[in-house]
Structures are given as C-alpha cells and as structure tokens.
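Can't attach files on this board, so I'm pasting raw text. These are the components:
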Amino acid sequence: MAVATERARRPDSFSQAVKESVAARDLCPFCPGHEAMTPPEVLAYRAPGMPANGEGWWIRVVPNLYAAFRPEPDGQEQRAGRFWQRDAIGACEVLISSPDHRAPTSTLPRRQVEEMVQAYVDRYRHHAQNAWVEHVLILYNHGRPAGASLEHPHSQLYAIGLEAPAFADELDGARGFYRANAACVFCRTLEDERRAATRIVFENEAFVVFAPYAARTPFETWIMPRRHTASFGDLDPSREKPAFAEALQLTLRALQEGLNDPPFNYFIHSAPAKADVADAYHWHLELIPKLSTAAGFELGTGMWINVVKPEDSAAFLRERIQKVAEPA
Amino acid sequence: MAVATERARRPDSFSQAVKESVAARDLCPFCPGHEAMTPPEVLAYRAPGMPANGEGWWIRVVPNLYAAFRPEPDGQEQRAGRFWQRDAIGACEVLISSPDHRAPTSTLPRRQVEEMVQAYVDRYRHHAQNAWVEHVLILYNHGRPAGASLEHPHSQLYAIGLEAPAFADELDGARGFYRANAACVFCRTLEDERRAATRIVFENEAFVVFAPYAARTPFETWIMPRRHTASFGDLDPSREKPAFAEALQLTLRALQEGLNDPPFNYFIHSAPAKADVADAYHWHLELIPKLSTAAGFELGTGMWINVVKPEDSAAFLRERIQKVAEPA
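---
Top answer:
Structure tokens for the assembled complex are below.
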C-alpha cells in the first residue's frame, strides 16, 4: 500500500470528492495552448522546427503533476518494530494521445493510434533500463467511474521500484508452469483458446483478442501477441505495432459502440527488464470494463462475481467488431 | 472468479447499469408489509404470537433473491484441459437490520444495533457448522458507489464452499507468524498499536478501533476484540456484544457526521470452523470508506494508493467520535 499525501485533500474535503465532475475544456492542461500548465514535456512528437513545450505536437508526454511516486533512487526506509515503511520511489507520467480533447482512442485515425503505441514503447524502454526500476506499468482510465480525473484522453505510465503484487502473482504462476512444462503458459493458453474458439473476439496477423476463461468482469478482454515475447519493449515496429494498434482500436470501438461508451481500465503487463523470465512470460494488455461495483464481497474475499459468461461477452464483442472494422 | 448468470442482465442492457438509481420506497422489498416480495425468512426477531413472514419483526433475514451461489453440496466439476470450473456452492442471505427504510446503523437505538449483531452471530453459527462451508463472510455495503443496490439498510451473508483468496492470504500470514513467534499476530498488533497510540480511534472494555498501519484507503478502520478469539461465532453475549455494538455504531456515526455520509463497505473476517487456527487467528471487522476509485493502477499492480496517512485518519475520527459518543 502506498501513502501519497502529495495527492491529499484535507480530510474534511473528502465529502465532496464523489461529487466532483471532470475538468471543463477551457481549463484542460492537456489541450494545445495550455502546455505551460504541465511540467515540461519528457517526450513529444511534433513538426520539425517547432519549439518544445509549445503547440504543434500530436503526442505529448509529461510528468504527472500529482505523482504518487518520486524518482529518488536513494529512498529511505524506516522501521519501528514490525512497522516498516520506505519512500515511494518511482516515476509517473501522463501520455497525451491526441491534441483533440474529445477524441477517444476508438475514434482517432489509425495512424494516430500507432503513434500512441510508439510513445508507449519509447517511454517503456526509457524506464525499463533504469537500475532501480522493478516494474513499468502503462495504463488507461476511461470515464470518471473508472478513475479518470481529466476528460482529455491520456494514458499513464508508472515506473516503480517495487514488485507489484498482482503482477508478481502472475509472474510466479508463469514461472511455475514453465518449470513443470518447459512451455509458456500464455502461448499454451493462446493455442487452447484458438482451438476452443468460443472466447475469441478478434485475430489479426500478430495479435489475438479474447475473453479470458476466468474473466473477472463482463466483457473483460485480453490482447496478446502471437509471437512469444516477454517484454512490451520488444514490440516489432513494422509488423506488430500496426497490428496492435488495430486490435486495440477495434476492441475499444466495439466496446464503445456496443455498450454505450462504458467506463473502462486497461493496462499492459510486461516482464520487468531484470526478471529472468524471457521464456516463461508473455506480455499482454488486460482491458476491464467498469460495469459493476466492487463491494464488500469482492473486498472481503478477493473474489470477483461476474454476471456474464466470457463466451457470451466474446460473442457479443465478436459480432460488434465485425460491424465496426474498416480498412486501416 | 465466480460467474453468476442468475444476476445477469442482457449484455446490451449494461449501458444503462451505471445510471440506475436505488429502488424507490414504495417498491422496497425490505419494508414491513412487503414480506411477500422476498423468499420466506430464515430468521426473524418479532413479537410473540406474530406469524412468520408478516409484519411485527425488528430483524429479518431472508435468502438473497439474486444469489451468486447456491446451496448444493453435490456441485459438479468440469474440466477441459487446463480449463476447470465447478458449481458456485454457497448460501447468500440478506439481514435486514431495521424495519425503518431510512435508518442507517449509525442512527438506530443502541439496543437495535445489538439485535443486528445477535442476528449476525446466529446466522454465522448456523452456516459455520455445515460440513461443506469453508468460509462465512458477513458484510455491509452503504451507498450506491459502494455497491448497495437497495437503499433499505441491510447486511449480507455469504457462506461459501471455497477458500476466499483475500482471507486465505491473511490466514497464511497469521499461521506463519504463529509458527515463528508462538503468538497471535493480531494480539501483537493490538499491543503495538495501543503503545504507539497514534492510530487508535476508540477503545472500550472489549474492543479496539484503529486505523491499520498499511491502510488501503483514507479512513480505513478496523474493529478488533481485545480478547483473543478466532471465530466471530464465539462473541460473548453479555460482555462483548454490547461493546461491539457500541464500537461499530460510534465509528459509523463519526464517519457519517465527519465526512458527510460517505459510501463504505465493511466485512467481518473470522476463522473458518474447520481451520485449525484457534491460536493463530483473531477475528475482526474491516471498514473501508469509498472515497476514491480503484483504477488502472490498482487493477494492474494490486497496490492501493492512499492519499491520507493512517495517523491523520485516526486523529480525525478520534476527535469526531468524542463528539458523537453518548451514553448507551
């Protein structure tokens, strides 16, 4: 658990928190012309000759102004008996995927989605090489019920100096399967899913989109490269990048059009640079629509109750994706 | 992960789900006079001579009409390669804590809170003795953002034939600590917390209320018996029951009045009947206000970011609880 008082409001202001709405457009720090509202950019794709931190960009990456982690490799530890804490070490960035305040990924030109993916790769590689980084997570929150606090479409990157428990569990499972079977559990899952076919949503030459067998929520969907690759940083630019952009965009479009633009989260799970799991792990994207509320049962048990079978979710999205697919 | 299509709506109706409001009063199945809207009661406290499933009750427990689990001890398993499923075995009940549609626990007469606790104990013991039951969870969801689908105050009970992962992790930790130290980790925590004092919210003769060291959310609060007891079913009726009712009600009242009635979840973690952990485990209640949204970061990492230090949460609630405490 991370304590981040940098983000804090006063305790007595919490009563208002649930009633806040997203920032209005004229105050949006991610819109062109408002570049001075963010910390200086760490990456931008813009026309040649245009100065940094001005207009003219089509992708812009900036440090998160409300960072839960700080990039201090020499963070301190404190112990008092069994009570132990250390500084929250890490980098937090915001990846603005388009100058257009109102353009979600599902409606961007395909070429722009590829540029967003390229920015993911660039920043992933940048952080994964740092010695103190244990884990790099790239994620997207869509809609306020899914935790988006600003309306302008943006992804987030966290590079942290800790093992992430949810990811560590997955990694341990993959390592165990590899030891027992000398095979990647994700490659095996792709084979099984393609044979069963009932949970497949979409396939192209380099990616498979499917509803996982133990889906946590209605319409949970995974996007996985067919080529065995542990690290997202190894995305092949000529073959895999456009295929990933296509798979992601069509899935998001099917979700948006089929389910009336529901809130969702997605994140990329990728093996940490240092972990020696090149054979056992297989990077992928997990997309989790927010159509129900985790309540006392989920908190108390750590279990999810899913009211839709993954086969039904997949059939619904498969049909939709055929309707929304267009030539790239 | 549990699939519960009994609860399902059609996929294309999900787009409306987030916009639903709580049921209006004249349709409330939990109000007196509407007893026929629920399955027949499994427990009720009512005046002598009044017939079952009519009015006159002050506590009423009924099976959950939208049960995610079904009480079928002979549930089936299916295997297809590595894909494995079994029937969701369990009992789901609703504990209606007052005939008054508008009376949350924080405003009930203290005597009524004790009756609610008695109903918790009665139903806990009833289910914990069943051979197929692995875990009994009693929980409360308050407010729609915390998953309450009906406004009339009610608790829920799940008796399930599975290990619950979140609880199993806690149990493993307690077992490990006991093996290493021949002591209960929760008893030790109570000692440490009382010595540190900074995270204590309230104490009475039998319970300690405190903000846990690694609080997941602002104002997360635990209520723990001072007496070492693994099972909630062993709550002492003369000494502990009124003290638990007091601690719970004052904490909820401080939360409601101090933070403008925020949504919250609470649940009771109690050692399963069969688990041989009488020495290692210590039952308690975990109260988790819903003041922020779990988003991509929390889903992707399994970590929580808390924007308020537990010491500040505790100081705020400690001050509030002094204001709201009245003689029982």
